[in-house]
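Try this one yourself first.
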C-alpha cells in the first residue's frame, strides 16, 4: 500500500509518498511559473500555423498559443495547443511542427539538439505525434528546472465519475530525448496529489 502525505509550510506544499518498501520522494512544488527570458531572435513560423486551414484555426481560437519554459533552461519556448485529431479531416502534427524552443541566440525545434529520435521507442512514454496540449497544467519545482506537465493528450485526463475527469498523466522534459517524457509512477502520484491538494477539485466518485 502507498501512503500519501501532504504538508503545508508557508503556502508551499511538500508532497511525500511512502511505499511498502519504505521508498520516499519529496517534491517542493509551486504553481507560479518562474520568469523566462524572451529570445532575441524572431520566432520562426511553425508548420502548424501555415496554410489557410491553420490560419482559420488560429483566428477562431481553435489553436491556442502557449509560452512557457518547457525544458527548464530559463528561455521562453513556444507551442501551439492543437486539439487531438478525432477524425481524418482534422490536422495532424508532429511535436516539432507545433513547438519551438527558445535560446540565447536562436530558436530550435525539439528532438534536434541531441540528434535524438523517438522511432522505435514507446510513443506513450515520449509522445512525438498528435501531442495535445490544450488542457495541460504546469507545476514547477521550487528548485528550478523543467516543469511537470499534467494532462498531455490524448490520454492525459480520464473520466472517473459521471461527466467528470481527473489528471492521470504527468510528463517532464527529458534532455536526452529532447522531448516530453512520462515521469515514474511515484513522482506522478506526488505531482497529482499536490495539484488536487492546492488548486484542483477531485471528482465526486459516488456519481459513477
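Now uncover the answer:
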Amino acid at each position: 500500500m502507498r501512503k500519501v502525505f501532504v504538508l503545508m509550510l508557508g503556502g508551499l506544499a511538500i508532497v511525500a509518498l511512502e511505499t511498502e518498501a519504505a521508498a520516499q520522494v519529496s517534491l517542493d512544488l509551486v504553481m507560479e511559473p518562474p520568469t523566462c527570458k524572451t529570445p532575441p531572435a524572431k520566432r520562426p513560423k511553425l508548420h502548424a500555423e501555415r496554410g489557410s486551414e491553420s490560419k482559420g484555426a488560429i483566428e477562431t481560437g481553435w489553436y491556442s498559443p502557449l509560452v512557457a519554459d518547457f525544458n527548464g533552461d530559463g528561455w521562453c519556448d513556444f507551442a501551439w495547443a492543437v486539439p487531438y485529431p478525432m477524425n481524418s479531416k482534422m490536422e495532424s502534427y508532429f511535436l516539432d511542427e507545433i513547438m519551438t524552443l527558445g535560446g540565447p541566440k536562436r530558436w530550435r525545434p525539439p528532438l534536434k539538439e541531441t540528434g535524438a529520435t523517438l522511432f522505435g521507442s514507446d510513443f506513450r512514454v515520449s509522445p512525438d505525434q498528435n501531442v495535445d496540449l490544450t488542457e495541460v497544467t504546469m507545476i514547477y519545482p521550487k528548485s528550478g528546472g523543467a516543469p511537470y506537465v499534467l494532462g498531455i493528450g490524448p490520454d492525459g485526463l480520464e473520466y472517473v465519475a459521471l461527466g467528470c475527469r481527473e489528471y492521470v498523466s504527468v510528463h517532464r522534459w527529458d534532455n536526452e530525448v529532447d522531448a516530453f517524457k512520462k515521469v515514474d509512477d511515484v513522482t506522478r502520484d506526488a505531482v497529482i496529489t499536490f495539484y488536487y491538494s492546492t488548486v484542483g477539485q477531485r471528482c465526486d466518485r459516488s456519481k459513477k
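Discussion: The chain has three helices and twelve strands. The CA atoms of residues 63 and 180 lie 20 Å apart.
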